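COURSE: Structural Biology Practicum
ASSIGNMENT: Worksheet 4, Part C
STUDENT ID: 0417
INSTRUCTIONS: Below are two proteins. For each, the amino acid sequence is given first, followed by its structure token string. Answer the questions at the end about the second protein only.

PROTEIN I
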Amino acid sequence: MEDLSLSKGSSGDVVTHVINILNRLGLLNSQPLEITAEVVDAIRAFQQSRGLTVNGIVNSVTYRALEESRWKLGDRSLYLQAAPLMRGDDVAMLQSRFIDMGFDCGRVDGVFGPRTESCVREFQKSAGVAVDGRCGPATITALIRLTHTISGGAPSILRESAARKNRGPALANKVIVLDPSGGANSGINSNGVQESEIVYDVAQRLEGRLLALGVSVFLTRGVGNRPTESERIVFSNETGADLMLSFHADRYPNESAHGVATYFYGSQAHGVHSVVGERFASLVQREICARTDLLNLRTHAKTWDLLRLTVAPTVRIDLGYLTNPGDAQRLGRPDFRDVIAESLVIAIQRLYLASEDDAKTGTLRISDLRKAGIHR
């Protein structure tokens, strides 16, 4: 259902299924035959609660999130299967409980992958349940019984922060993936500014600076190819990246919309977020806004797949609105893109600096990093 787009007035079996889910979630108390204004409000409320783009339209991303929300822990047996992997709120609840009990299943992403299966086996062994990697009735019963008696394990947020600190402040030997977007919606605006070219140029400028500081840098695409989001996620995960930056330029029907925004993984529904991702998003936002006159649209937690399924802390940066004449004019200037690249490399270094070594936003320069020798 990659091309799914259900909006006000849409009807059919899929719409009926969506309405049934919204009713079960308590967001709707009626059974209309089509998407009405009331249903649109319910969809928007769901999107808001899930960290999705709030537009009242059921596209493939929202539909998949609705499907995942149907499952509660115990509704079905959970196990590792061939792609597509099992997804759902029940998987997220299982992962969350494992983390509370001290098992390391990584990020709470609601996807039953090999790491989650490994935790199931580890738990089954410790609980005296048949070890088969499947979370069925016996395992769920043991999990419920032991959840409140076993706790104290290092939470995932502490592991994520510890992993960052253990790598030290030096950028040398770190692996960073740069993801210049440029998909089907990256057309040319009235000023001749194209998203795919702008973000690719920013990525290249940042790549050069990072390479000079000893970083291993990978770009998810070249000049002419357009890998899918799934392919970019797989690529990032296979590199074993320490960090991933995804660059975009936004669009809006009203040309008055303008400014820069950053996004990190966070789920209000599951009560989790990427601590490192949130901190880095904040650093990027502050550095760009301190060095440019782009409007500060702040940082936001989202559950988009690029943020959720990429293992490394990932931040999406919307560098401005190409539909706004001012933003488009700025992004079209090479010197402005240079300032953006410098802002980003400083934000990356500040992420790895200890607080006592940090500096005031907008004051560090790349030359300062070289003088300090922290690129070695």
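PROTEIN II
(use this one for the questions)
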Amino acid sequence: MKKKKTHWYLITITVLMYISFGLLTSVIGVIIDRFQIQYNVSLKIAALLPFAFYLSYGLLSIPFGLTMDRISARFVLLLGMILMTLGSFLFYFSSNYLIVIFMIFLTGAGVTAIQTAGNPFIRELDAPKRYTANLTIIIGIGALGYAISPILLPLIESAGLSWNTVYLIFGIINSILLFLLIIAKFPEISLSVEEKIQSSVTRKLLRNPLIITYALGIFLYVGAEVGTSSYIVTFMGKIHGVGPNESLWEEGTFFASAFPSISALVVAAFWLFQAIGRLIIGPMMKFIKPRKIFIIHSLLTCVTLIITIYSPKEIAFVGFALVGYFTCASFTSIFSATIQSFDENHGAISGILCTAIVGGAFLGFLVGFIGDLINLQVAMLINVLAFLYVFALAIWGKGKLNIA
């Protein structure tokens, strides 16, 4: 049998695309307060930023999956990069807050396209036996994007540039990646029947109680993750009076120049700790049952967030970062427990679970709405309630979480 060629060029481009959509995803957590101040809008209007971004998952995950089946993964990947590039540039040049919100939706649509096509695409770039390892590594490296963009924005501001310049930088990065993707030679990708999204199968699966229960888990988990990470900077400002450009270090020092915003640094730590946590719990599953890891981490997510909400600012800084770490097991546990409960239709189940990521839109907006109506401490309790459902799912969920 002929040995399958390793497409190193495309593997590299894919890693860079994953980093790029990580940049676009996590930066929302540090632009909400800037957006609110610049356009003089309420917090519930600013909450439309994460709403618009994550709404694209609910509206477009399955359509992009169908497009990938009928046309190609290459087409969906190129479309995703075009949307990310256009959305970034138009965000920078927009002066109307409604247009800015729509551009956030456009970049979210691009991210959805890249994620929808990414997994089967990665499978075709190397030998099948290395697929799981390659996917894990690419997702892990891509997590760097989540950690970089929150600290990139205050660095840009400290250089005397407007906060929205970060989107000009993203636009340039994405246009380079788009060009590199256009000139790339793609292998022919053929999806198995299991990986194709079929509407009749999807309708049947949506009536299955286990899938509904776990899809709701994804909906609430992602909603709480977004509702927490997107409001760290705003929370520290409104509850503890910490300005967006207030540093932990003395002015003029190296660290003050490198990290001019302690709140943004905490957002970066939230995502970085989550990525590190996933690398830690992977080897742990050889010695500790995955369900036990899921139960412990989901419980500590709830406890840590409650403490963080009602603690002094010094503890809150550390607390938000730790919440990021303790969330490391939830998404993958819910996802794998669902997939492992069925012997077939994994592609359709995956499509349903990815669509449930739209929870980031609704809970993220709800936190902003309640924060504007009452205060952010009360609003953050919405995230605690959502995480409690995930904890309940860890204890009483019927999904098969017995494979490391």
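ANSWER KEY EXCERPT:
Q1: Residues 35 and 46 are 7 Å apart (CA to CA).
Q2: The chain has one domain: 8-396.
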